[in-house]
Description:
Elements: E1 4-13, E2 16-26, E3 31-35, H1 42-50, E4 57-62, E5 65-66, E6 77-80, H2 92-101, H3 107-120, H4 136-148, E7 154-158, H5 166-183, E8 186-191, H6 194-200, E9 203-208, E10 211-216, H7 218-223, H8 228-233, E11 240-249, E12 252-257, E13 263-265, H9 268-271, H10 276-281, E14 283-287, E15 292-295, E16 303-312, E17 317-325, E18 332-339, E19 350-355, E20 361-364
Parallel strand pairs: 3-8, 3-9, 6-7, 7-8
Antiparallel strand pairs: 1-2, 1-4, 4-5, 9-10, 11-12, 11-14, 12-13, 14-20, 15-19, 16-17, 16-19, 17-18
Helix pairs in contact: 2-3, 2-4
Amino acid sequence: MAHIKLENVVKRFGDVVAVKDFNLEVEDKEFVVFLGPSGCGKTTTLRLIAGLENPEEGDIFIDGQRVNDLSPADRDIAFVFQFYALYPHLNVYDNIAFPLKAVNISKSEIDAEVKRVAKILQIADMLDRKPSVLSGGEMQRVALGRAMVRQPKVYLLDEPMANLDAKMRVDTRAEIKRLQHEIGATTIFVTHDQVEAMSLADRIAVIHQGLLQQIGTPHEIYNKPQSLFVAGFMGMPTMNLLDAELTLNEAESVLHLSHTDVDLRLSPERQTTITSDAQKNGLVFGIRPEHITAGSQPNEQSISAQVHLVEPLGAVNILDIRLGTHAETQDPILLRVRAHPTFPVTVGDTIWLDFDETEMHLFDRETEQALW
């Protein structure tokens, strides 16, 4: 397969910079997911790798060869689009065989390759059907098959499951993961769905406003966000992010959550990571809902608060806890907590909260970079 490298890549559309100083390496046989909201530049970056767009600055390498000036056909890449782009007048067999017929491979080789790929994708019994009678998931498998028969160096998939229903997405996701492991393909997959990214990727590249925010394993992206954007984008529900100030109380370091009565005592190791510049810029405290424990009885360090809303989700309840009120807007300051569905609580109840100190995060409000 192939190793891919992007060095300082920039792409503009008029005055809009769609990709900004992008640096990334994708290892041979690695499955990397580009994750981010709509319009963040992930599809543009994919199209730059494919040769469908040309960078204004920077270089793109595939297996050490600079490919900026190579046409898409010469990069040995298969691109699977969000829309299946099947030929409606051709049956499944001919749709899959089309790339091979274009390069004058013998009929016997084409037949063997089409049937091999169809067997892997579990569509061998559909080869004589037209696309009009296929389901969305079946059409997606045909599109994947058309890419697979070429046996390219790199597979690029641009939101290939966006048009599938929820169950079909789960089934197709599992199929793509299995296929990628089976054929050992270097793969880049674009999505805005974090569940897809977490379940598929060896590494996730989180992109926002054309910038690569962070790249790492799913565990690193979720548990060690390096910026406010990554912290707020990942997770369902997302991380609680609250303004905070560092104060000293009787020679003790205390993190005070703004406009609330909540004070969190910090260990010396935590306090020393907070620079004077960060204190001047302002701080943002973060903690995920599952790292807060809700109880009906207090202990030495628990914090009392009132339940604002209960959201039953079956396996868990999400509790919105009111910590205070914004001085200017008078909007409530809410903290989301994940609780077991058997935890007895209703709106208006007072409960006690314990924060897992090892899972707390702190960010510089101005630079938006992680301090913890």
